Amino acid sequence: MKVNTNIFEVEDVVADLTMRLFKFSKNKYAVELLMDIGSYTDIPSYFFENSLHCTDFYEIVFFKKGNGYLELDQQRIAIDRNVIVFISPFQKRRWFVDKSKIECCFLFFQDRFLSKFFLDKLFTFRLQYFYNKVSPLFLKTADDESLRIFDVLQDLLREIKKIRSDSEHITRALLYFLLIKLNRAYAERYQLSEETKENTTAYRFKQLLTNHINQHRDIEYYAGKLAVSRVTLNKCIKAQFGMNVSEMINEFLLVEIKNRLLYSELSVKEIAYELHFSAPNHLSRFFKMLTGLSPKDFRNAYQNGMSVF
């Protein structure tokens, strides 16, 4: 079933369970625009429901106040004053918030809004807070920093509310500025590299891993795709992300397993087959080594309301 709103289209996706997919609506304004910004009151109320859903666009949500929490990629994020949440396309999430106590701004955009102008198809992969499977997917800012951020958001909002012939250039420049500033703050907070121009090998690896982790988890595959040696790849990944290649592959794979355990009814055997483990007990051994729980115990704990995040 599809539902149209002025911000996005909503589609019920039936895979292992029904999940809403929010698709970006590029025709909201007088011209085609692959970015949108607004306040909480501009978002349909069901966007913050606790039913499982995802989107096909990037989202940054800036909270002036709030309560409750968000489940995102097996992270539980407390929603509070000056919290910024970063969500990549197709990340599954559930909101558990009191909508009457929320005040926030949202920023939505599709990758093409930036890449078609900057000619850098890796740009969003260069940002530490997108496609990150290890560090927290939120940033808590100080009051003065939040004020500066909201000033930029207001500039963006004013430009979008009154579209002119050159508005796309201004909105793109402001968005680029904001994303880089947020990347600096995020990298500093979590002690990561804030470099976005060098180490292209690391960003290409992150892109490949995001797209191919379900099929490939051997280092040789990625080193071959990137035309570098294992040693060189390890050095690049360690310098950019603070871990070696094997650790990063394991973290991405663990997220895929957890997603299926939490949000599908697939058996461990079916998950092992889908993720190309040679046997179900190999998946179980891998999962317990990283989490301390068996897949069955992990699923049961979540279904019984126990915290597994």
TrEMBL record:
The source's domain of life comes to Bacteria
Q: Which UniProt keywords apply?
A: DNA-binding, Transcription, Transcription regulation
Its protein name is AraC-like DNA-binding protein
Under SMART domains, the record lists: HTH_ARAC (SM00342)
Which PROSITE patterns does the UniProt record give? HTH_ARAC_FAMILY_2 (PS01124)
Gene Ontology molecular function: any one: sequence-specific DNA binding
Domain (HTH araC/xylS-type) ranges? 203-301
